[in-house]
Amino acid sequence: MAEKISAVKGMNDILPPDSARWEWLEAIVRDLMGRYAYRNIRTPILEQTALFVRGIGEVTDIVEKEMYSFEDKLNGEALTLRPENTASVVRAVTEHSLLYDGGKRLWYMGPMFRHERPQRGRYRQFHQIGAEALGFAGPDVDAELILLASALWKALGLTDVRLELNSLGQPAERALHRTRLIAHFEQHADKLDEDGKRRLHSNPLRILDTKNPAMKEVVESAPRLMDFLGEASLAHFNGLRAILDANGIGYTINPRLVRGLDYYNLSVFEFVTDRLGSQGTVCAGGRYDDLIVQIGGKPAPAVGWALGVERVLELVKEQGTPIPLPVPDVYAVVPDAAAMPVALRTLQQLRDAGLRAQMHAATADGLGSFKSQFKKADASGAAHALVFGADELARGEVTVKSLRDGSGAQTTRALTDLAAWAATLQSSAPQHS
């Protein structure tokens, strides 16, 4: 036998019935994005490496440690599997001049790739759903995106998610804060770990995001960026807060919230939970007004967020939210292969009428016994079994047996009457289990 080939570590198959949970989430997202007037965008999984180096930041963990990058053997291009999608969306908007006639509200879903240690809710191929609003400068759109995410938690039945806010101000404000931050950490260099020392002069803001408990004290005593914000930055932040307050959205101001990507300015936010351990951030984002220029476009403001699909589904599971799983309405029991042409034609008519219909199919050992077919009909979750027996078919009929109401009631119906029966069944029979 040939050696068995397995999936790449950290890149997982999504199998039934779990795939139905993904479809459930995706359907809710599609509906919600439409109600907020966000339109779908789909970008390539492969991009030029320079896009992420320039857009995300050369000294971020993603670029330094986590990207799947390689040289194209055919033409020598430096390419990378996208580690996130905001830079790709901005590249697409810039390349196709989508902002020529005003701002755009866009959303996406798809796989991203980062080479990190696989753990619960965090994989090397992971999936994100994101919303981006480009061309809008005011805090009203920042608030709209937060309201959109909050509406999603409600639609998913999630209650144990809280919002944290901060403002990173503008580049000049961050530059002054950076100088004070470096001076502070230099005074306490003996308390920095190796990662903190490495970041001290390249990206000191990221030291504030450390998870090392030994550095908690020196981080807590560091200068706060909020204290360096100018009038315009504070007005933007207060405008966002006012809209959230008016809509009853609770939040906590977290002055240590800095996000892991270099392109953010002004508003940044995270939705977090305590139910997933160290992987508590389920959705995060903020404003990135300078990213379009960094990628080569004309100056334009932008704001957005992304959520981790695996983490959200883990949280749904953790909270015990019931998820409807698709099941067939009818299951065809076919005792004799000679009945297959009629059975298939009938099931096709029922599907055309809107029902979900599953046929019992033969294996290498044949169709199996009548009893085994009924066991599979019951296991399928179908509401009714349709029995295509020889005697019934000779009369132009099919036996309909109830599988879900406990009665086990059986009736016979004319084949010509099944389409009308299907119409009544659609309005009364359960579509999910």
How would you explain this protein's 3D organization?
With 433 residues, the chain is an alpha+beta fold. The protein has 2 domains: 18-169 and 229-319, BirA Bifunctional Protein, domain 2; 330-428, Anticodon-binding domain (Rossmann fold). The protein is 36% helix and 20% strand. It has 15 helices and 16 strands. The protein has helices at residues 18-35, 49-56, 61-66, 86-95, 139-156, 171-187, 194-199, 216-220, 231-246, 291-294, 309-319, 340-352, 370-379, 390-394, 418-428, and strands at residues 39-40, 46-48, 68-71, 78-81, 104-113, 125-134, 162-167, 252-253, 265-272, 281-287, 302-308, 330-333, 357-359, 384-387, 397-402, 410-414. Helix 1 (18-35) runs antiparallel to helix 5 and helix 5 runs parallel beside helix 9 (231-246). The longest helix is centred in the first third of the chain and has 18 residues, at 18-35. Residues 429-433 have low confidence and may be disordered.
Keywords:
alpha+beta; BirA Bifunctional Protein, domain 2; Rossmann fold; 8-stranded mixed β-sheet; 5-stranded mixed β-sheet
Q: Topology of this structure?
A:
Layout: H1 18-35, E1 39-40, E2 46-48, H2 49-56, H3 61-66, E3 68-71, E4 78-81, H4 86-95, E5 104-113, E6 125-134, H5 139-156, E7 162-167, H6 171-187, H7 194-199, H8 216-220, H9 231-246, E8 252-253, E9 265-272, E10 281-287, H10 291-294, E11 302-308, H11 309-319, E12 330-333, H12 340-352, E13 357-359, H13 370-379, E14 384-387, H14 390-394, E15 397-402, E16 410-414, H15 418-428
Parallel strand pairs: 1-5, 7-8, 12-13, 12-14
Antiparallel strand pairs: 2-4, 3-4, 5-6, 6-11, 7-9, 9-10, 10-11, 14-15, 15-16
Helix pairs in contact: 1-5, 5-9
